[in-house]
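[job 0417] fold request received: cytidine deaminase
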Amino acid sequence: MNLLIEAASRSLEKAYNPYSGLSVGCALKTSSGKIYDGVNIENSVFGLTMCAERVAVFKAVSEGNVDIEQIALVASTGKPVYPCGACRQVLFEFNPNTKIHLSNGKTLVLMEILPFAFSRDALS
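[job 0417] inference complete; emitting structure tokens
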């Protein structure tokens, strides 16, 4: 967990946040042990802003790593931040049991904070 929190903290300086001023860093670990980081990337069209979690997930998936085991989140405010609803759904696609490590030392399981996720079962 500490390794992921440290990786997420290091990524904060790369955040692009000219509108909110809030930097968010994420680090995720796949079952292969590889770590991917991500930062929030804002846009003047706010709906096009991308969260740190999705940036990290998309980096991992684009390299063929889809078995996400855990993530860590850190914000420039020093307060713990939780994944937004969109990020929770994206994480669910790859592992509903993803562990989420917060900067205050708390660890959650994705299914605890997204109990009624939309899944591929709904498509059949």
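[job 0417] notes: The mean pLDDT is 96. Helices lie at 2-11, 52-62, 85-94, 110-113.
[job 0417] exit 0
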